[in-house]
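User: Show me a protein chain along with its predicted structure.
Assistant: Here is one chain, sequence first, then structure tokens.
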Amino acid sequence: MATKEKPKCPHCGQEMSDYAVPPYNFSDGLGWGVTSLYVCFNDQCSFFVEGWESMMNFYGQRASYRCMCHPETMEIGAIPVFSHDALKGGMFDPEEERAKEEAENKAAAALRGYIEAKDTLAIVDMLIDETVAPRVRLEATEALGKIADLRAVEPIRNHHFTNEIIKKKAEEALELIHKANYTKECPYCAEIIKARALVCKHCGKDLK
């Protein structure tokens, strides 16, 4: 779809937007046979505006419809909606999606190089970079757990993870690192100490 000129809505003349098709169909369950459609999201479009009254009169439902266009056949149709914001979550920019994919592939390639070189700190940097794709960051947690370098502990522990799945995997990586090095973190000062230590050598707290 990205290489084609986007069609204009026959009802309002506004350029249609790319819309990612969900894994279900709105009508017969057969789907449209494509992963995306062109849809008019103009809230002032006559087709959408007049649809509310039409749907109420014919079906007794508070709903309307938006004009859609099949990207391969260019056939015009309609998609039912039950609110002004319905479907808008599926809007996307093909160029932006392509840029994200390229950035993710570049990050994944860089990570593979760091893993091969066992560059712990570089791998940690990718893990705690919230702009890096989640898939790449999850791969970084697995690598850190295998490399088991204690230098990874402090920066990971000090980072505030916004993704709960990545946070959980990072914590699992820390457990693997400590297990491999027979260490643990002091519950009082957070310094790394021997797993069997009864007294923290850093803060002097009794750990028994």
